[in-house]
Amino acid sequence: MGLSFNKKTIVITGAGNGIGRAASILLANEGAIIISIDKDLKSLKKLKLILKKKCVIKKVDCTKYDEIKKELKDINIVDGLVNCAGIVPQGDIISCTREDWINTINTNLTSVFYITQFFMKKFIHKNSLIFFHDWEKIYTKKKRFYSEYIICRIFYQRC
Q: For residues 139 and 129, what is the distance between their CA atoms, to the nearest angstrom?
């Protein structure tokens, strides 16, 4: 059975640029409806011009849980989650400020936790699978944890 994203609703963080933008375009071209999340509204609007009706844009700072709850509360149908929000600080360890370090940790790690936690109930109720970007485990309705390798196999079999 082939993998199909046709008519699947996929949430993608960091969708305005980089890997998130590329993932949004790729999955939309495969038939998915993309809920594009980014704090950069200008980049989201450019993505919307490309994806048109296959894209719903949400300007959200994924490092702020209250903002996530407020701005994403209307999203009820989710088939997949791709956490791509991330930054790469410039410079080296000597020139990295504490503010730069905290911002990097909040963007690259804390935002993944916040977004995943927010959408977890929607996945559990739908008996869907959630894939953690750069994490080793996922969670299903049966409250079992699986390795990424096993999850990829299950996901392919379900689609």
A: 7
Q: Which amino acid is at 18?
A: G
What 34-39 contacts at long range (C-beta under 8 Å, 24+ apart), as own/partner pairs, is 34/10, 35/9, 35/10, 35/11, 35/75, 35/78, 36/12, 37/11, 37/12, 37/13, 37/62, 37/72, 37/85, 37/115, 38/13, 38/14, 38/85
Task: Determine contact, residues 129/138, Cβ cutoff 8 Å.
Answer: yes
Q: Which residues pair with 113 in a beta bridge?
A: none
Q: How far apart are CA 30 and CA 80, in angstroms?
A: 14
- Residue identified by tokens 């999203």 is 75
Tokens of 35: 């809920």
Do residues 3 and 156 make contact, with C-beta atoms less than 8 angstroms apart? yes
Annotated domain spans of the chain: 9-158
What pLDDT, on a 0 to 100 scale, did the predictor assign at position 125? 64
pLDDT tens-digit readout, 111-145: 999 998 898 877 766 655 545 444 444 444 444 44
Q: Does domain 9-158 have CATH number 3.30.1490.20?
A: no
